[in-house]
Amino acid sequence: MDDMPAETGSYHYRAMKRAIALIDAPGGAQRSLSDLADEMGMSPAHFQRLFSQWVGVSPKRYQQYLSLGHARRLLHERFSTLEAAHEIGLSGQARLHDLFIRWEAMTPGEYARQGAGLVLHYGWFDTPFGMALGVASARGLCGLAFADADTCAATFAEMTARWPKAEFIADPSMAAPHVDAAITQSGNAALHLIGTPFQIKVWEALLHVPSGHVTSYGAISTRVCTPRAARAVGTAVGRNPVGFVIPCHRCLRAAGELGGYHWGLERKRAMLAWESARLDVQKAP
What we know:
Arc Repressor Mutant, subunit A; four-stranded mixed β-sheet
C-alpha cells in the first residue's frame, strides 16, 4: 500500500470518535465543555475551536446530533421520499449530490469481466471522517473506503477484491482530484460506478437524498423495484464502494435504527451529525 497521508482531518475525526465514546458512557448525561475538554486532554479553548472548525457548532450543541435518538428525529423531521428529494435539493437548503456529480456506470459485460483491462490508480487521503482509500479509473472515482490505523490493510484487500482482474497502481495524484471534488462538494466530481445493474440502480437512488436528510430502505425499495425487496436493497446499499459520496449513511431503518454501515456505525453517526449540524448552521438566520 502507498504511504499514509498527513492526518489533519483524521485528527478531527478521531476527536469525534472519542467524544462519541464519552457521550455514550453509562448515564449519557450532557457533558460541559470543560469536562469534555479535560477528559480528552485538551484545553477548553482548543476543544471548542476544534469542533467549530470541523462542523461549525459548539461541542455542547454538537452533543445533540451525536445522541442515539438523533436518527429517530431525522426520520421524523427530515425524511425524504426519493420523489420529493429532488425538490428539496433544488430549494437551496440542501445541495443534492447529483447537482455537482456526473457519473457513468460500467456496462454489465465490463462488470462480468471483473475489471479485466481496467487500470485503477489509488492512494490514501485525509478526510473529515478519517483516512480513506481512494480508487479512480480514467473515467472517475470508483472507490472511497474509510479505514482506521488498524484496518488499512483489510480495507485495501476488500476494495481491490471487488475488481480482482484490474491492474492497481499506487498513484495518489491520479485519484486526488476526484477525491477532493467529492469530499469538498466543489467543482465537478466524476464517478465511475462498478457494480451490478441492480446495485447501480440503488446507488443512483441514494444520490438523490439531500445532505442533512435521510431516507429508509423501504423508500428506496419502492423507488427502484418493489417494497418487498428491502433486503436486497439493504445488501446493495452495503456494497456501495464510494463512501460518503454515494450517501448510504443516509439510509436508516424505518423504526429509527441506524442499520448497518460498512465502515462502522460510529462513522455513520458522525457523518449524519456532521451533515445535520452544517445544514442547521446554513439555515440559521
